[in-house]
Amino acid sequence: MAQLTCRNLTLGYDGKIVRENLNFEVNEGDYLCIIGENGSGKSTLMKTILGLKSPMSGTITYGDGLKEKEIGYLPQQTTIQKDFPASVYEIVLSGCLSKIGTKPFYSKKDKDMADYQINRLGLSALKKRCYRELSGGQQQRVLLARALCATEKMILLDEPVSGLDPKVADDMYNLIETLNKENGTTVIMISHDIKSALNYATHILHIGDDIFFGTKEEYLESKFANVFAGKDGEE
Amino acid sequence: MASIFSTLSTYFAYPFVRYALIVGVLISLCSSLLGVTLVLKRFSFIGDGLSHVAFGGMAIASVFKLTNDMPLTLIVTVICAVLLLKGGQNAKIKGDAAIAMISVGALAIGYLLLNIFSPSGNLSGDVCSTLFGSTSILTLTRAEVYLCAILSVIVVAVFILLYNRIFAVTFDEDFASATGTNANLYNLIIAIIIAVIIVLAMNLVGSLLISALVIFPALSAMRLFKSFKSVTVCSAILSVICSLIGIIAAIILGTPVGSTIVAADIIAFALCYVLGVFLGGSGK
Predict the structure, then answer these.
(1) CB A104 to CB B178 under 8 A?
(2) What is the pLDDT of residue B241?
(3) Residue A77 or B148, more confident
């Protein structure tokens, strides 16, 4: 059984349909890239997968040991976070919140987990630093560490490299690939960057007027790839 | 100097001065705790709006000639806090507009009610003391002090127990709810606590100046500190110190208590701002 299965999903808000007939599934260890133009419903889909929004119709089923609230999430940076006084450690630790249940405070185990993720993503030197003083790439790594504190089964990344310079973006992509390959973490990534998506992903979900879902190889042979690959080639 | 001390010790002999100090410390502690959250969530104006609602509630209470207006005011304010929060999510009327509407509306209706059904001859005096808290803190009864103390203890306890959740919901609501934290519930709790704090603080600084008590210590602390915990602790300490200085100064100089406390908060903010610039980095 797949970790995440979407059947006949209709997305929208305020009674307005944004996208209909979405069918796809994600298996353990997959690296799915969701691509599509602005306004194609990528963000709405993401919120629906995370359970922040209910679908207008259709079903999402979670399986293979994955529960709805076990998806780690790397959001796009919001304006609130930019001037938020919080240390790296505080933010990473807050990822453990789902594990403390009804207890008011974090246990030793949670704190060890936060330390482990901080070291793993190379943030040890920044542990006590203030989040808002970090560079864009460092901030993304902090948020990734937080997501991994919540779960290592599946992470959902919303435009993780937007606003980063190419070198830092590459580092980020490599880091995500390492997590996917070595750790077996399922990755779902929303991206504008089709070239990199095709580099790293195993599956592609293209949403727009036409919907495509399949492996990367299938995608490359489809009509979608020609349009985009052609564009990218010219750039 | 000696005369100031003798003046002070004369004043401290009166129970109402001691009550004022106790209540002042408790209220400023509570209000500063949530200030950080409010400022960061861009909710600063909710405090302002609710304080006007509390004024309306107080007006209704005095129309009905209730001797203790705190319970009624508390209920009205909590209901409005919940409505504002729910309204903000449905977004038919945008959050800031809804707050402005409710706050001005409550202010106007409150004054209107007081005018029509004026219970006392000194209307403008009553209104002034409700708005600016000019004397009410010095006329607290023992029962009011107890109520205030109990509510403060509850607010502080709830804040400490929910500290980690409040942090998570303030920093990133979407992430918190995606990983199973009931963000709406905690937003609701935050709104209710704010309402309680505002009703408490009306005694101290009056309904027009409450926002200052909530916002200034948080903003001052954010100039100097960089982690959520240190900002929260610092704003609590700053707020209590400013209130103590404000109350004592008001007694010595004979100035209105509320505005003197706020003036102390403003001076503290200026000092923190300058210090922050000198220390570099966080002052930006």
Answers:
(1) no
(2) 94
(3) B148
Q: What is the mean pLDDT of each run of 10 residues along chain A (235 residues)?
A: 83 78 86 84 84 83 80 76 84 88 86 90 88 86 90 86 84 88 88 82 85 83 64 41
pLDDT for the residue B221: 93
* Alpha-carbon distance A197 to nearest alpha carbon in chain B (angstroms): 24
Cβ of B174 and A106 within 8 Å? no
For residue B125, the one-letter residue type is: G
Decide: B31 and B239 in contact? Cβ < 8 Å. Answer: yes
Task: Give dist(CA B177, CA B184) in Å, integer.
Answer: 8
Tokens of A26: 């994600």
B152 to chain A, minimum CA–CA distance in Å? 19
A125 touches B at CB < 8 Å: no
Please check whether residue A138 is in contact with residue A130, taking contact to mean a CB–CB distance below 8 angstroms: no
Search chain B and give the residue with CA nearest A107: B164
Q: Is A134 exposed, middle or buried (0-12, 13-18, 19+ CB in 10 A)?
A: middle
Residues of B in contact with A70 (CB under 8 A): 179
Three-class SS of B265-281: HHHHHHHHHHHHHHHCC
Alpha-carbon gap: B171 to the closest alpha carbon of chain A (Å)? 6
CB A158 within 8 A of CB A74: yes
Integer Cα distance of B235 and B214 in angstroms: 10
How far, in Å, CA of B161 to CA of B155, rounded? 10
Closest Cα to residue B43, out of B191, B189, B168? B191
More confident residue, B64 or B138: B64
